[in-house]
Amino acid sequence: MLRAIEFALRQALTNIRRHGLMSAVATSTVAIALCIVGAAGLFLLNVNLWMQRVVGEAEVYVYAKQRLSRADALALQHKINSLPQVASTRFVAREDAYRELQHSLRRSLVGVPNPLPDAIHVRTHDASQVAQVASLVRRWPEVEMVVHAEHTIKILLAVRHMIGVGSVVAGVLLLLAAMLIVHNTIRLTLIARRREIGIMQLVGATPAFVAAPFLLEGAFHGAAGAAIALCLLVPGYAYAHRVFTRSLSLFPLVPLSVLVDCSVLLVVGGLVIAGAATAVSLTRFLRHYHPA
Amino acid sequence: MIDFERVSFAYANDIEALHDITVHVDKGEFVFLVGPTGEGKSTLLKLIYREIVPTSGRVIVAGTDVGPMPRRRVPFLRRRIGVVFQDFRLLSDKTIAENVWFALEVMAVPRRDMRRRTTEVLRQVGLGHRMDAFPAELSAGEQQRACIARAIANYPPILLADEPTGNLDPDTSLEIVMLLRDINIRGATVLMATHDKQVVDALNKRVISLHRGRIVRDVPQGFYYAACN
Predict the structure, then answer these.
(1) Do A37 and A77 reside in the same domain of the chain?
(2) Where are the domains of chain B?
(3) CB contact under 8 A, A201 and B78
(4) A171 and A272, same structural domain?
(5) What number of C-beta contacts closer than 8 Å exist between A and B?
(6) Cβ atoms within 10 Å of A129's Cβ, excluding its own
(7) Which of A199, A200, A290 should be substituted to probe chain B, the one whose Cβ sees the most B Cβ atoms within 10 Å?
């Protein structure tokens, strides 16, 4: 067993050395694909974070009827709180709202009667539930008016969805392209070495023995491609993180610890796409190739 | 050792290469398969090392019906059969010793035996002094000897030779066939496909003549023309 592994390793290394240019093409293609997929992934994560912040801050403002007593207004808050979509509520008493209004207008409104009702600021578990809660509460008799940024939230949700779908589609296409190139590289290697493969089959090599060096070669392309992609992505993201933290603190990025998950995913992704492409190439070649 | 029981074989284009072949080869026999090109000699050899499977009938090698043999068992069958080709099929980037070594490595021969066997078989075929030469540095006859060395490195009980003298001059052809005879004397069953009259006549061994995929003559000791006529 150990000898078979040693033989496969030796064969794979010899082959990578002999077909250096093709190996470089395959490795760099995997690297480029993984780099773009990784960058798109990080971008998407950050966009998601920003969207969550913006959308998460969206609230439904429920204004109670003027005639409602304080106790009834608080009962209304309790009633809203009991809705399953509601995450939290904040009661804004009409006096506090009036004070806030004067503060924002920077002038005293002494002598002007308070026109504001008691209000309840409502946050839902998910931004998509805002419209639902608003339309439900609006029908209650104790409610004067309901205000929420329905249109803006809809646009933000649509943008988030489009970026997500777009990134997944682009990522899948790039990974398929990388697989195709690794597949062709291994196929060219197989064709270049068909004589050797034929001799191996004739003298009694098992299919696993024949396949092992090529699978190792494919794994090398995947791992090396992932390593190159990480060499570009990790410092790149660390730099972006530094810049955003210093200069654009309003838009904080996802913490650097995300790079650990990203690295694992890229290495696994590299191995899987290169391994799958090699396996397909090998299976197709060995099925149709006859040594004599 | 080798039995063909009513074996027929047709290629994918429905051209029948062999038709209703029944033949028995004993252990230790030397058999020439003769006939012009395209009469089914190579096809018959391919059936033995299970490169192809018969369309009908049974091919039994050392007691095993190789037709229904699962693919995973085929490598182990081939480790007991040496094959020699007209075009030598040596790896040009490896020395002669490395070519033999490579085959032994593939066959999972213990490493401590590999060096001894390599030296032994190369000496046996008369290449003891050219072990470190690359195929391109050897004559055609020497390359064929190297190919034979690789084929017998695992001491196979069966040796198949498909036109092994096809690329050689008459004198070298005789040297090669004498070498195959020596291997046969040491106990291996040898089947040699050829259309070389000189080598067949030189040995006076069993001759099976094929014509249009059928056996038209099978003589225990014979000559090329006698077999064909």
Answers:
(1) no
(2) 2-80+156-228, 90-154
(3) yes
(4) yes
(5) 53
(6) 18
(7) A199
Shortest Cα–Cα distance, B48 to chain A (Å): 12
Contact B79 A204 (CB under 8 A): yes
Q: Do residues A178 and A284 both lie within one domain? A: yes
A120 and A197 both lie in a single domain: no
Residues of B in contact with A195 (CB under 8 A): 89, 91
The residue among A185, A167, A172 whose CA lies nearest residue A28 is A185
Q: Which of residues 58-117 of B touch A (CB under 8 A)?
A: 71-72, 75-79, 83, 85, 89, 91, 102-103, 105-108, 111
Nearest to B16 by CA among B70, B65, B52, B59: B52
Could you tell me if A125 and A199 lie in one domain? no
ipTM score of the complex?
0.82
**Mean per-residue pLDDT for A144-150?**
84
pLDDT tens-digit readout, A70-122: 999 999 999 999 999 998 999 999 889 888 888 877 777 777 788 889 999 99
What's the pLDDT score for residue A291? 61
Q: Which range marks the domain in which residue A97 is found?
A: 59-148
Domain containing A72 — which CATH number?
A: 3.30.70.3040
Q: Which of A108, A133, A148 is the last residue of a domain?
A: A148
User: Same domain for A267 and A163?
Assistant: yes
The total domain count for chain A is 2
**DSSP-H helix ranges across chain B:** 41-48, 74-78, 96-106, 111-124, 140-152, 170-185, 197-203, 224-228
Beta carbons of B79 and B138 less than 8 angstroms apart:
no
Last residue within a domain, chosen from A148, A181, A213? A148
Tens digit of pLDDT for each residue in B107-165? 888 888 888 999 999 999 999 999 999 999 999 999 999 999 999 998 999 999 999 99
Nearest chain A residue to B104 by CA: give it.
A203
Determine the CATH number of domain B2-80+156-228: 3.40.50.300
Question: Which chain B positions have a beta carbon within 8 Å of A203's beta carbon?
Answer: 78-79, 103, 106-107, 150, 154
Interface touch B51/A203, C-beta < 8 Å = no
The answer to whether the CB atoms of B91 and A207 lie below 8 A apart is no
- Same domain for A181 and A263, yes or no, is yes
A203 and A250 inside one domain:
yes
